[in-house]
Design brief:
two-stranded antiparallel ribbon, about 550 residues, mainly alpha, single chain
Length: about 550
C-alpha cells in the first residue's frame, strides 16, 4: 500500500465517521437520514482523496448491501416475533407474572435486560439481545428509550465470546495464533479481564439509571453477584473452553438471579416511584386487555422455542455441521486503488449459512408462536394481516439505514480509509499506542456494527503493530476485542434493531448520545490499564 499516512489523509479518512457522529449526536438526526449522508461522504472521500474508481466504490457498496443482509435477516424476523407476541397481548401477561420470580422492580429489569439479554447474546448474538430484550422490558413498564439502552449496554459484555465465540475465533485466526495454545490462553485472560470490568460497570450504570444512589444501594449486592458469575465465570471458563466461556456463565446467571429474588433483600415488593426509567401509567393502561387464561410460560413460549432451537442447532455438532454446509455467497474480483491499495478477490464473499443463522431461529420461533397463540384463540381473525402490516411498516426505514451504514463501512475498508485511520494512530503514538488499542477495536465495531468484523478488520493489524513495537501481543489483542465488545453498544445496526422493535425509530441519535460517552470512558479505562501494565510497570 502506497497511501501516504499523514495528518491530511488521516483527517479525511475520519471525515465520514465525524459527519455521522455530528449528525446523529449533535443534531440528533435519525439513522434513516444520517446513514445515506455518511455513505455519500465516504464515497466522495474514497474517489477524490484515496483514488478509488467508481467501479471499485460501486463494488464495495454492493458488498455492503450483501453484508447488510446478514443483519436484516435478524431485523425482519425479530420484528415479526415482537408483533406476533404483541398481537396476542402476551407482553401484558408476562408483565403480570413477573412477580412470581421477584417483586423487586430493579431485579426484574436486571433479569430481562441484563441476564436474559446476555443469555441471548451467548447463544445467538447478531443484535438479537436488543431486538428481543427491548419489547420485553417495555412489557414490564420500562420506557421505550431506556428499553433500548439497557440491553444495548448490558448484553455487550458477552459479545466477544457470545454466539459460541464467533468474534473470538475471528480474532485468533486474523492474529495467526490458532496453533499457539499459550498465546490463546494469555490473550483470553487479558480479554476476559477487560470485559469483566465492562460487565460490572454496566451493572452499576443500570442501577444509576433506575434511581441513582438509592437504586445503587439496593442493587449493588445483585450486581456484585451477577458480575462475579458472568465476568468472573467467563474468565475462569475461558482458560478451559473459549467456545462455551460466555454461554456457561450466562446459564448460571439465570439461576443466580432467580435465587437472588428469593433472598430477604429482593423477595419483597420494592420500586422507586420516581424512577426516570419507568412509565407505569402506560403499562397499567393495558391491565384490563389481556387473555386471562394465558399463563406466563405460555406467554413466553416463542422465547422458549427460540432458546431450544438455537441450542439444538448450535450445540449438537452433527446438526450444526449438516445445516451449516449450505452457504450462499458471491464472487468479487480484485480491485486496486490509484495508491495501490489492494482489495483482494474472493470466490465467496461473506457467505451466509441461512439454516444456522440467528434470523432463521427467530423466524421459526415467530411461526411457532403465531400457530400456538392462534390455536388458543389469542390472536383474533385478521390478526395475521395486522402482524404483517405492522412488521413491513417498521422494517422498511430500518432496512434503508442498515444498508447505508454497512455499505459505508465497506467503502471505507475496501478503499484504504480504515487502514489509514488505524496506522495513523499507531504511527503517531509509538509504544503509547497500547492505550489506544481498545479505541481501535471500538472504532471497528462502530463502523461495521460487529465485533467479529472489527476483529477481522483489525486483528492482524493489532498483531503486526505489537510485533513492530516490540511488545507482547496478548494484551493488545485482548484490548482489541474488549474494545470491540464495548463498541457494540454504539453500533448503529444494534441501535436500529432496538429502536425498531421498541417503536421509536428516529431516536437513534438520542440513544447514541447517551451511550457514546459511557463506551468511550470504558474504552479509555481499558487503555489506561494497558498503558500502566505494558509501559509503566514494565
Amino acid at each position: 500500500m502506497n497511501i501516504p499516512v499523514n495528518a491530511f489523509t488521516w483527517i479525511m479518512a475520519a471525515v465520514p465517521i465525524l459527519v455521522l457522529l455530528v449528525l446523529m449526536v449533535k443534531f440528533q438526526m435519525g439513522a434513516v437520514k444520517a446513514a445515506p449522508i455518511g455513505l455519500f461522504t465516504a464515497a466522495v472521500s474514497a474517489m477524490i482523496i484515496f483514488k478509488a474508481g467508481l467501479p471499485h466504490i460501486g463494488m464495495e457498496a454492493v458488498k455492503g448491501v450483501w453484508s447488510a443482509l446478514a443483519v436484516l435477516i435478524v431485523v425482519w424476523p425479530a420484528i415479526l416475533l415482537y408483533e406476533v407476541v404483541n398481537e396476542a397481548k402476551a407482553f401484558q401477561v408476562f408483565r403480570k407474572s413477573m412477580g412470581q420470580f421477584t417483586k423487586n422492580e430493579l431485579l426484574q429489569i436486571m433479569l430481562l435486560g441484563w441476564v436474559f439479554a446476555s443469555f441471548l447474546q451467548g447463544i445467538t448474538g447478531f443484535g438479537v439481545p436488543v431486538a428481543v430484550g427491548a419489547p420485553l422490558l417495555i412489557g414490564i413498564g420500562v420506557k421505550p428509550f431506556w428499553a433500548v439502552i439497557i440491553p444495548l449496554l448490558l448484553s455487550t459484555w458477552g459479545n466477544t465470546f457470545g454466539t459460541l465465540a464467533a468474534a473470538w475465533d475471528a480474532l485468533i485466526i486474523q492474529a495467526n495464533i490458532l496453533d499457539d495454545p499459550q498465546a490463546i490462553a494469555q490473550t483470553a485472560m487479558w480479554a476476559t479481564a477487560f470485559i469483566w470490568i465492562w460487565n460490572f460497570a454496566t451493572g452499576v450504570t443500570l442501577c444509576w439509571f433506575y434511581g441513582k444512589g438509592r437504586a445503587l444501594k439496593k442493587g449493588l449486592p445483585a450486581v456484585l453477584v451477577l458480575s462475579l458469575v458472568q465476568g468472573g465465570g467467563q474468565m475462569l471458563v475461558g482458560q478451559m473452553n473459549t467456545t462455551l466461556c460466555c454461554f456457561v456463565p450466562c446459564c448460571i446467571s439465570l439461576i443466580a438471579v432467580i435465587l437472588l429474588g428469593r433472598t430477604p433483600l429482593y423477595r419483597d415488593t420494592w420500586a422507586l416511584e420516581d424512577s426516570p426509567v419507568m412509565d407505569r401509567r402506560a403499562a397499567s393502561g393495558e391491565e384490563g386487555d389481556y387473555p386471562r387464561d394465558m399463563s406466563m410460560h405460555q406467554a413466553f413460549l416463542p422465547y422458549y422455542a427460540l432458546t431450544l432451537i438455537t441450542l439444538f442447532v448450535l450445540l449438537i455438532s452433527p446438526v450444526k455441521n449438516f445445516l451449516g454446509q449450505f452457504k450462499v455467497g458471491f464472487a468479487f474480483p480484485e480491485m486496486v486503488t490509484g495508491y495501490g491499495f489492494v482489495d483482494e478477490a474472493t470466490e465467496k464473499f461473506s457467505p451466509i449459512a441461512p439454516f444456522t443463522h440467528a434470523g432463521m431461529f427467530l423466524l421459526v420461533s415467530a411461526g411457532i408462536g403465531f400457530l400456538y397463540f392462534k390455536g388458543h384463540g389469542w390472536i383474533a381473525e385478521g390478526g395475521d394481516r395486522a402482524v404483517w402490516r405492522r412488521t413491513v411498516k417498521k422494517t422498511v426505514p430500518s432496512s434503508i439505514a442498515v444498508i447505508c451504514f454497512v455499505a459505508m463501512s465497506k467503502v471505507m475498508s475496501g478503499t484504504g480509509q480504515t487502514t489509514v485511520l488505524a496506522q495513523g494512530i499507531a504511527g503517531m503514538m509509538g509504544q503509547a499506542y497500547v492505550a489506544l488499542a481498545p479505541i481501535v477495536g471500538l472504532l471497528g465495531s462502530f463502523m461495521t456494527s460487529s465485533n467479529m468484523a472489527s476483529n477481522i478488520l483489525f486483528g492482524g493489524f493489532q498483531m503486526t503493530t505489537a510485533n513492530f513495537l516490540g511488545m507482547e501481543a496478548a494484551p493488545i489483542l485482548g484490548a482489541q476485542t474488549a474494545g470491540g465488545a464495548i463498541g457494540s453498544a454504539i453500533c448503529p445496526g444494534n441501535i436500529i434493531l432496538g429502536t425498531t422493535t421498541a417503536g421509536i425509530m428516529g431516536n437513534e441519535g438520542l440513544i447514541l448520545r447517551k451511550v457514546l460517552p459511557l463506551s468511550l470512558i470504558a474504552a479509555a479505562i481499558v487503555g489506561c490499564i494497558m498503558y500502566i501494565s505494558c509501559i509503566v510497570l514494565v
